[in-house]
Amino acid sequence: MTIQWFPGHMTKARRQIQEKLKLIDLVIELIDARLPQSSRNPMIDEILQGKPRIVVMNKADLADPEVTKQWIAEFKEQGLTALPLDAATGTGVKDLPVQARLLMKDKIDKQLAKGIKNPRPIRALIVGIPNVGKSTLINRLAGRNIAATGDRPGVTKGQQWIKVGTEMELLDTPGILWPKFEDQNVGYRLAVTGAIKEEILNVEEVAFYAVKYLVQYYWEPFADRFELKEKPEELEEPDQIVAVMEAVGRKRGCLMGGGRVDLEKASRTILRELRAGKMGRYSMEAPY
Ligand code: GDP
Fold first, then answer.
1. Rounded to the nearest whole angstrom, what is the distance from the C-alpha of residue 255 to the centroid of ligand 1?
2. Burial (CB count within 10 angstroms: exposed 0-12, middle 13-18, buried 19+), residue 189
3. Which ranges carry the CP-type G domain (predicted)?
């Protein structure tokens, strides 16, 4: 479900998270590894009020591993620990409690020094934009199905702590944040990756944006997938990009009467296969 974010929703979402901050030691900020800028909330630093935080780059299985490495270094420069993982299969998930402990080490050591033998588990809250994988990660950490997938910022229910091993506890309801919307590129990127529904924008325009990007940065896997022969020479020529979309449409049998390509169908096909990782791993934002 896609949320329409209005100022009132944003204020409410922010207030809900800040209420929860009082209960926890650490925030797990979930972002999409393919879109480390656009999938981050623009006010995150302000909202979290200096709470210790781990940035989790989810869906790392779909992202370009080289670019993900660059992002980890970039976050490190900013003083943030970033952890790539794949909540859907669980790859990397076991590192999360380990990193949480490392981040809270000083606090735990202080408790031990005070003679507290069994410091209580680290309490954590997952926050992130819709569709970034919050529910998937909560279920994965819990080892069972807790969180319903899908988001409703207005709906609250009784909160519970989920035990993650013996040293961490997680609030069962994540904090839902809005993405960056400030420019059109951001909207397109979020739509390409499926973070927002492409119907909000025009599906052909979203696919056009994706194809242009793939032609520029990931031509080989893209061309392999659809057996495309000729790489467009002029990226700024819309006709050349549309020609690629038509070639994909023909390959996939997206045709209308008279043998013309059904560009809308071709667009949906491109986006579906891209999101499913069929064209290989790609990132849409690099840290430079
Ligand atoms: P939420 O809205 O933040 O709670 O997101 P969900 O947990 O509902 O996940 C949104 C979609 O992303 C679902 O279709 C998940 O299966 C998928 N997903 C979540 N984590 C991953 C991941 O690490 N890799 C991949 N490929 N898909 C993921």
1. 32
2. buried
3. 14-179
Q: Is the CB–ligand 1 distance for residue 20 below 6 Å? A: no
Write down the residue that tokens 């981050």 correspond to.
Answer: 40
- Can you read off the two tokens belonging to residue 267? 């667009």
pTM, entire model: 0.92
Instruction: Give me the DSSP letters along 213-263.
Output: HHHHH-HHHHHHHHT-----S-TT-HHHHHHHHHHHHHHTT-B-GGG-B-H
Query: For a pLDDT cut of 90, what percent of the chain falls above it?
Result: 80
Length of the chain: 288
How does the average pLDDT of the chain come out, rounded?
92
pLDDT above 70 covers a percentage of the chain that reads: 95
Determine the Cα–Cα distance for residues 235 and 28; give it in Å rounded to an integer: 39
- Give the Cβ contact number of residue 51 at 10 Å: 15
Q: Could you read off the pLDDT of 134-189 as tens digits, one per residue?
A: 999 999 999 877 755 444 544 455 678 999 988 899 999 999 999 988 888 999 99
Characterise 66 by phi-psi region: left (phi > 0), alpha (psi -120 to 50), beta (else). alpha
Beta bridge pairs of residue 29:
55, 127
- How far, in Å, are 177, 206, 255 from residue 29 at the CA level? 10, 27, 43
Q: Determine if ligand 1 sits within 6 Å of the CB of residue 58.
A: yes
In the chain the beta strands, taken as DSSP E runs, fall at 26-32, 53-58, 81-84, 122-128, 161-164, 168-171, 175-176
**SS3 for 181?**
coil
- For 1, the enclosing helix (H) or strand (E) is none
Maximum alpha-carbon separation in the chain: 81
Instruction: Take atom 17 of ligand 1 and give the residue whose Cα is closest.
Output: 133
Token pair 């809250």 is found at: 125
Q: Two tokens at 92?
A: 């990397």
The rounded Å distance from CA 39 to ligand 1 centre is 13
